[in-house]
Amino acid sequence: MKKHSIRHFSLFFFHFSCIITAMMMVTSCGVYRNYDRPSDLQTDGLYGNAQVGNSEQSLGAKAWREFFTDPQLQSLIERGLAQSVSTRQLDLQIQEAQEYLKCSKLAYVPSLAIAPQGQLSSFDWSKPLKFYTVPLSASWQIGSIGSLRNAKKSAEVGVEQVKVARQAVQQALVANIANIYYSLCMLDAEVAISEQTAKNWRESVELTKKLMAAGRSNKAAVAQSEANCLSVEANLLDMKEAVIEAENALCTILGEAPHHIERASLASFQAPAAVETGVPLALLQNRPDVRQAELQLASKFYAVNSAKAAFYPALTLSGTLGFTNNGSSVELSPGKWIWNALGQLAQPIFQNGRLRAQKRVAEMQQEEAKMAFQQSLIAAGNEVNTALVKLQTASQKQALIDGQIQALTDAVQATEALYKDNVSRQVNYLNVLTAQTGLLSAQLGQLANRYAIISATIELYQALGGGSLMND
Question: Each residue of 338-351: pLDDT tens digit?
Answer without folding.
Answer: 666 665 656 666 66
